[in-house]
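Let's practice the habit of predicting before peeking. Look at the sequence and jot down your guess about where helices and strands might fall. Then scroll down.
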Amino acid sequence: MGRDMATTNSWPRQSLSSSRSQFRDSCITLAHGSGGKAMADLITEVFVSRFGQGSPGPLNDQALVDLGPLIKRGDRLAMTTDSYVVDPLFFPGGDIGTLAVNGTVNDLAVGGATPLYLTCGFILEEGLPIDTLIQVVDSMAQAATAAGVQLVTGDTKVVPRGKADQLFINTAGVGVVPVGVAPAADQIQPGDVVLVNGPVGDHGAAIMVARADLALDSDIPSDCQPLHRLVDTILAVCPQVRAMRDATRGGLATVINEFAIASQVSISLDETQIPIRPAVNGLCELLGLDPLYLANEGTLVVVVPPDQAEAVLVAMRSHPAGHHSQIIGTAQVESPGLVTLHTGFGCDRVLDQLIGDQLPRIC
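Done guessing? Here is the structure:
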């Protein structure tokens, strides 16, 4: 970690407009990673000014968190980490900053945890425009505020020009799991019902469109969004959720395969019930891709007992992140580990795991 960006409890906050005017450099240089005044100015005026909350605190090597409020929220601590290398940095519906916050929040949420704290590490390439960095940091701050989490500590490193691609972000998240909540991929039983909270493939499609070499004209936005409040809504009506997962790399099909293998059940999906935007379908047909394997950044896959499925569906549809929720499949005894798709033509096809990703660097 080092002493780069950590504080006690939280970063002190300054005015966004005043911090930009005080920072005079136009691009990242190697001096910004040297440990001297240039780095101190970068940390204070770009990061601390945006991520800090409450009263100012010292820049220590760690964030100190009061255990009292955590213990009142649950009986287990949840932790996760992720790295973000998306290309391009900005895409319809979000950017690498919103992705870094929402992705880590969602990794905690699908374990049943209430997300509370995030850390962030930045790998900056020499020559990165400061305005680009500020735009990303602002997005992260706004996404954290919207999700109700605190960015409490972090780190910066600068690498020479050509040794990275502009900007990489690593985040870690900490949350608390309430007593009695324990979703897990190996808990699925025959007869259980699979639900999804909305259209699949939007993020992967948005990244494809945003890449200039494809020269495509489309308004497909990423589905990048936090899912923890939707999870809270589900748990309020069904604390016995069997399994939850956000369908990121590898898409819906990969998550369902992971569920089937972990629980040693087969899972049958109904193609006609899986929501996919016409624009995403059209793009996949044009490029020869399968939308069921496209990445998502705001798609929740939930497995629940059959007698709870309708109540969960109603609850999901009552939340803004779940208006288009659908029941899409069931778990079965036969052929453990197998995933099949019942198509609109009335036949079944196997949905296997991909050997590699259809599209690299999507998150």
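How did you do? Residues 16-177 form a domain with the 60s Ribosomal Protein L30; Chain: A; fold (CATH 3.30.1330.10).
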